[in-house]
Every structure is written in structure tokens, then in C-alpha cells.
Amino acid sequence: MKGVLEWTLRRRVVTLLTVVAILLLGLAAGEVALAAKNRTHIDAILNKTGPLRVQAQELLNALLDQETAVRGYAVSGSPAELAPYDAGRKREQDLTASMRRLAVDYPGLREEIQVVEQRAEAWRQAVAVPVITTTDQNGTAAGQALVTDEAREQFDEVRGAVDHLQQEIFETRQSSAEDVRRTSNLLVFLLIVAVAVVLVAGTMMLVSLDKMVIRPLTRLADQVREVAEGDYQHGIAGEGPPEFVQLAEDVDAMRRKIAKDLAEVREARERIEWVNSQLQKQAEELTRSNRDLEQFAYVASHDLQEPLRKVASFCQLLQRRYAGQLDERADQYIAFAVDGAQRMQRLINDLLAFSRIGRLTTGFTEVDLNKVMGDVAAQTEAGRQYADAELTWDELPVIRGEEPLLTNLLANLVSNSVKFRRPDVPSKVHVSARLVGDEWEISCRDNGIGIEPEFADKIFVIFQRLHAKDAYPGTGIGLAIVKKIVEYHGGRVWVDTDVEEGTVIRFTLPSLPEQAAGTATDAAATDAAEGGDEPAGGAGDDGPAGNTGTGLPAQVGGDAAGTDATDGPGGAPEGGRTGDMRETVG
Q1: Which of 174, 337, 421, 530 could form a disulfide with 315 if both were Cys (CB 3.0 to 4.6 A apart)?
Q2: What is the pTM assigned to this prediction?
Q3: How far apart are CA 255 and CA 220, in angstroms?
Q4: Would you give the DSSP letter of residue 540?
């Protein structure tokens, strides 16, 4: 019994169904055999014993016709009276032959038919033939003399044999009918047994399903529901077939894992809440620090610059008034002081501008970069005039951003390209744009001294200089401002090191939705525009060419062309826009 209880649900169901199937197949085989016997018995009644009874009666009639014809011929002597005799004999032969075929499975009936034939033939030889012959030869009186009581008794024996045959046929038919009733009853009984087997099997199946499936699953579901309602410490125990026990163990293992994970989540939540409290304190501290920084910025932009201006002014006065009156070393010291004060002013202005990016915001609007390039051309006019530089740009897109910051961005790139030019080579700067996916990729290309690949990442670091300040002026903050402005607008900036001459700085800006859905700029056409006889793009601020010395536009704390303007004399721009947009100074 214990072994049965350890059976799996599949094995139990398969065993029950197998037993039921064997029983039903056995019953079906018995019913088929009984149905075949029943059909045989019914065939015997309908196609054998029934026709035999009819033919036995017809046989008696044929014999009676013969006997009547013989007596009538003995009375009348008319040959016409013998016609029923001949017909009766012919009919008798046909009927006995047919009856023998029908009685092939009944030996007793065949013997009785043979007895009838023998007695009928004996009657004919003893009575019928002598009467007919005597009447033909001696007349009717002689023929009638042969029709005696003994002759009638002999025919009665024939009739008795036929009656006995009919009785045998009737008894045989009754036996077949009894067999039909018996097999029919057995068929009904087997059908009842089959129905009982199905009912019992169905009942057992329902009871087994209720006991082995429904109840264990219901109890398991109740336990799972308790866990689902929050009682994760409630253990889950299974019962029933091994599959359900294993399922309960798996569910309980899952419960234990969930309980463990929840405990870890609670601990993590507590840690997060503690971290949030610390972050809140730090945020408050950062808010206070930002207020202090703003105050420092105010002081730096006003209070700190006032002493610097005085130092620079008085040093310049000393330089002008006592130039040549003191020794050469004194003049050198005064020049150092003037230069240091001026560089300190530029550093303070650049730091203020760098700190204000993204903090003092005017909000994003749609900005036409073509208009921005016009402003950039105006701001860098003095530096380009001194360097005999040519500034060109393709049709540029409209993007969302802050116009002052974007102007500062492009002004720094153009100023760098002009500053880090090759000696005795006219500087050419070209700005272009192409749509890549959902971003505009804007390039600033020049034909300057270029940037070595190993310095491509360093040039965007604040105060990172790759040349001495005597070689190229500037504070080393220009490209750091460029990177911060690009990232503030959701883009990225990098140096394209795959160029043979000059420098290409590329940066991305998100495009407007309708631009991203439209047709992108043909990349091949853009490459052709960038790789022609007019190099485009800006040299890096902090590349191997050096660091920018330009300040920032007035909107963000400086004049982008201010430093470059000191590099040479001023001049007026010449040229204009032909084909693409062009600003040429020379």
C-alpha cells in the first residue's frame, strides 16, 4: 500500500485507465463473439428453419397431390388425372433437394428428409405404380380394386414421416429461437456490465481526482495565498502525489528566496533612506556652498578685480613714466608685473564664465546657427584681419539651445583655428553640418598646425596647455568651455584625428523632431565639402598647437576676440557670401 501511495499521479491515472481499458476490451470481445452467435442463430431461424417449415408443408401437399391423382386415375382412367401426379413428383424432388441444402447444418433433419423420401418411394412402388399399370391394362375396376385400406395405411406412413419431419423442424427452430434469446440476454448483460465499468471507473476517477488533485491543490493554493497576502514566513507543505509534494517544495523554496530578497530589500531601503538623508544634508550643504560660490563670484567679478585693475594701472604708469630711467632689470620686473596682472584678470573672467555655463540660463529657444555664425564672424573680425584668415560656412541648421552659449562655442573654435595657424600660410576656417540620425554633427575644420592623436583628449581639460604661454597666448580654458557648452546642450565633442592636414573638431547637437524625420544630409556631399580646397573646422584650444588666449563673449563674461585682437592691428572685413556663406578678411 505504501508503494502505491508513492506512485506519481501520472502512474496512478495510467494504471486506472489501463485496467478500465482491459475490462472494456474484454467486454467488447465477448459482445462481438455473442453478436456473431446471435446473428448465426437469427440466420438459422430466418433463412433455414423457417423456409424448411414452409417447404415441408409444400412437400406434404406434393405427396397429397400424387395420392389424389392416383385414386382419381383409378376411378376415371383418364390420363389427364395423372398430370398432378407427375407435377407432384417433380415438385417433391425439387423440395427435397432444397430442404437438404437448407438442412446441411442439421444432421437429424437430413435423416428425416431421407426417411420421407424412402417412404414416399415405397408408397409409389407398392401402390401408385401398380394402380396406374393395372388401370392402364385391365381398366378402372381392376385399378380400384388395388386401392385398399392397406394402401391408404401405407400412404398414412408417408404422411406420418412428413409430420415427424415438420415436428423436428419446429423443434430445431425453437432451439434456435432460444439461442437467440439467450445470446441477446448475454449481450444486454455485457452492455450493462460495460456501462457499470464506465460508471465505476468514472466515479473512481472523480474520487481520485478530488483526493489526489483537487484537495492537495486547494490546500497548496490556500498556503500560497497566505504567503501572497504578506506572511512570507509561513512555510508551505505539500501532500498527495510526489509531483505535488515536489511542487510545494519548489514553491516554498521560492518563498524562502523571496523572503530573503525582501529582507535584503528592507535592509537596502534602510540604507537608501540613510543615504538619502545624508544626500539631503549634502544637498543643503551644496546649496549653501553654491550661495557662497555665487558670493565669491560676485566678489571675484567686482571686489577682486578692482585691486587687480589698480595694480595693472599703476604698473603701467610706472612702465610709461620710468621707462628708460631705471635699469634694464627694473623695466623687466615692471613688465612682468603688468603681464601677471592682466593674465590674472583674464583667468578670473574665464573662470567666472566657465562657472556660469548652465547655471545662469535664459532657457532653450530655436536658434538659427547661420545667424550665430554671422555674430561669430563679427566678434572674430579683428583677429582674422590680423592673421589674414578666411572664414566660411555651409548652410547650418536651426536647433534648440541658448544663443549666447552657442555663439561663445563657435567663437572659441574659430578663434582657436585662427590662432594656431601655420606660419606664412593664410588661415582658412570652414564650419559645416550634417544630420546623423537624430543629431546634427557640426564640424570646424582649419589648415593650421594640427593636433597629435595622443593629445586629442587632453585639450578639453581646463587649464591644460600644450605650449608655453610665450608661444601662444591664452588661459587654456577655451576648449573646456566648448566641452561644457556642448554637454549642457546634450551633445558630445571630439577631435577627428583622421585628417591629413590641419585640425577638425566635431560636436553634436540634438536635432528638432521634424528634422530627424526628414531626409538626412548626404554624407558623401558633406565629405566633399569638407575635403576640398577650402579646409574647414577649428583647431583645438588645448591641442598640440597650444591653448586659446581668447576670452568669452560679453554675454557670458568676456570678448571672444578680445585676446586675439591684441595680436595685431585691426582692420575691416572684406568679401561676403558667394555660394556658401563666407567671411573673408585680408
Answers
A1: 337
A2: 0.41
A3: 13
A4: -
